[in-house]
Specification:
The structure is a single chain. The chain is mainly alpha-helical and 70 residues long. It has one domain. Helices cover 91% and strands 0% of the residues. Helix 1 runs antiparallel to helix 2. The chain starts with a helix and ends with a helix.
């Protein structure tokens, strides 16, 4: 089932890349010494992306596991 494993790996890596982007956004906001309101706005804008990244990674891992089991 290579046709399911390889895209699963790509999807998982895309999700991990998006997670790294989310971490960078929050880290950059904290590093610049933003005030509480700005930091809260950054966190509120990153949370949906973070949830999407977790979902994308989970779907990719499911694709890899199903491909391995079949």
């Amino acid at each position: 089932m290579d046709w399911l494993i390889t895209p699963g790996i790509v999807v998982t890596l895309a999700g991990i890349g998006l997670l790294i982007w989310c971490i960078y956004q929050v880290w950059n906001a904290k590093r610049t010494g933003a005030d509480d309101e700005t930091l809260r706005n950054v966190l509120q804008s990153v949370v949906p992306w973070n949830l999407a990244a977790m979902g994308i990674s989970a779907v990719g891992l499911m694709m890899v596991v199903v491909g391995l089991l079949l």
